[in-house]
Amino acid sequence: MASAIDPRLVAALHPLAVRHGALGDERAAPRVVFQTATIAALLDGAYDGDLTIAELREHGDLGLGTFDALDGEMIVVDGEVWRARVDGTVSPVGDDECTPFAAVTPFTADVTVAVERELSWDELLALAAANSPMESGAFALRFDGALPAVHARSAPKQPRPYLPLAEAAASLRDFMLAPSDGTLVGFCFPPEAAGVELPGFHLHVITADRTRGGHVLSARVGPGTLRLGALSTLHIELPPGVELPPTGATDAAGAAVLRRIEGDARES
User: Fold this and answer.
1) How many CB atoms sit inside 10 A of residue 94's CB?
2) Which of 45, 93, 105, 106 could serve as a FRET partner for 226 with CA atoms 20 to 30 Å apart?
3) Among 144, 266, 168, which residue's Cα sits nearest to residue 217?
4) Each residue's pLDDT tens digit, 152-211
5) 2-262, which class in CATH?
6) Handedness of CA 22, 27, 32, 37 (dihedral sign)
7) Sign (positive/negative) of CA torsion 172, 45, 200, 180?
8) What is the DSSP letter of 194?
9) φ and ψ at 143, to 5 degrees?
């Protein structure tokens, strides 16, 4: 299956794709990011998953994703799974719920950076990129500390028949989090990951009191601690009907949708 992926991604992350029934002994392993489905499938409106939250948690304790029917933003931190709804409120998620797209890793920091002052969003991302523990640019990220301002977003549960993400994106809701302490979690993947994953940075946030969170569009952060964990292997669980995208599968229209969802604005 991995032969369908960009050879440069194969060289960078040694991807392995399996079906649910073949997961078997797949469990959390150092520097492995485990993912269910692909960004390409999500773009096509594949919002039903075959992987339970209990199964997902076997593969990592830090990550992000969404839930069946695109019902909110997933934040995985310290092995706990939380859902951020369209109003920014957060609640714990039961092990029997399912996910159509998520990525997790057993997080270990290879690089720790003390953030001694408030940083803009661009400054935070530049600091993370400059300290990447992998030449490929693939790593997990965790920031703990002050969050003076966070512009976030979440998605409401989608009705059937599901619309492709380009149309469902119209229902996304933005909100601002009040100044607080909290945690950002997520990943950075190289451009070669397009179609399989979201290239570049993808981060979600949860406040320290576990009451607010969402998908991060931009933020001001610090002081605090930035930790980066190297990723060398990508394991992909493919739900029924989902295949690995061919090289370059994310076309210009799909890339535009992802940019809109990620947010082009940057707060200073």
Assistant:
1) 10
2) 93
3) 266
4) 999 999 999 999 998 998 999 999 999 999 999 999 999 888 888 888 999 999 999 999
5) alpha beta
6) positive
7) positive
8) B
9) -120, 130
